[in-house]
Amino acid sequence: MKTVSRVLAAAAAAMIIATPMAMGAGKYRTPEQHNWSFNGPFGQYDRQAVQRGYQVYQQVCAACHGIKHLSIRHLGMPGGPFEYLEINGERTRFPNPNDNPAVVAIAEDLFPIEDIDDIGDVIERPRRPSDPFPYPYANEAQGRAANGGAYPPDLSVIVKGRHYGANYIRSLLMGYDQEVPEDVDVRPGNYYNPYMPGMLIAMPPVLMDDMVEYADGTPATIEQMANDVTYFLAWAADPHMESRKSMGFMVMGYLFILALLLYASYRKIWSRVKH
Ligand code: HEC
């Protein structure tokens, strides 16, 4: 018994000594927790933030990252950022994204798309809401060649695809201003970012204060843009979250009422039986 407790004590002491050493040897940082509007069982997306985030994606990230699982019309789908528009001071809902003026304008602003005309000739025409977003590269090799060998991943489901999800993306985007520790060797084409596993990232710092001019006048600080683009990417990765949560709530309510009814009938059915 004594040896067991001695071994345990030694192991505990080793852990206490080893922990700071492990940290010194360079462990990437846990992302900061952010208070997202969609946290919790009733949380919903902040539509204004998702709209601003789309603007950041389009003006900054789209140069290098695609969102291939989304079509333009998704922006106007139920639960999407442009489902409701403010027209002459009135909130108007557009049930069909193809008739939604904001979504149509977004589509027409993007690069034209290749199509074929009535006689089979290849033409370029303006995009429509039913089209996909343009992809920045023709193929992966081109993407790597343009980025010093690193491939910018598709961002449509990145929030689901990374540990710590939205908190990670936000911290990563804001994490370029940290002092480089002495034991980290930053080679050309890499940047120090303590939130990236490995702490070196081939993506340059892309956000700078006031680099976008928000349509709603919000000051575009780095943190604001990081928050907003993460809202957009969180919505993109899970556009049906809101309806799923309200469905879950209705199911719980239904089960609760059913449980009450079952209990009442149980009492009634067994009321004349002596226990
Ligand atoms: C100049 C091109 C460029 C731009 C602009 C750019 N990125 Fe990147 N991004 C990259 C490259 C290259 C990588 C791959 C980095 C690596 O593997 O080291 C990357 C990786 C990422 C990753 C994945 C990190 C990981 O965990 O693997 C995320 C998330 C990301 N970018 C988000 C964004 C967002 C959001 C924006 C817009 C605010 C943006 N990027 C703008 C080039 C870019």
Q: How would you portray this structure in words?
A:
The chain crosses the membrane at residues 247-266. The protein has 275 residues and is mainly α. The protein has three domains: 29-70 and 140-239, Cytochrome c-like domain (Cytochrome Bc1 Complex, Chain D, domain 2, Orthogonal Bundle), CATH 1.10.760.10; 71-132, no CATH class; 241-275. It has helices at residues 2-24, 47-59, 101-109, 140-146, 158-161, 165-174, 222-237, 241-269; strands spanning 84-87, 90-93, 113-116, 122-125, 191-192, 200-201. The strands form three sheets. The chain has a two-stranded antiparallel sheet with strand order 1-2. It has a two-stranded antiparallel ribbon with strand order 3-4. It is flat. The structure holds heme C. Residues 56, 60-61, 63-65, 147, 150, 152-153, 158, 162, 169, 172-173, 196, 201-204, 206-207, 229 line the site of heme C (HEC).
Comma- or semicolon-separated keywords:
275 residues; mainly alpha; Cytochrome Bc1 Complex, Chain D, domain 2; 3 domains; two-stranded antiparallel ribbon; 8 helices; 6 strands; flat; binds heme C
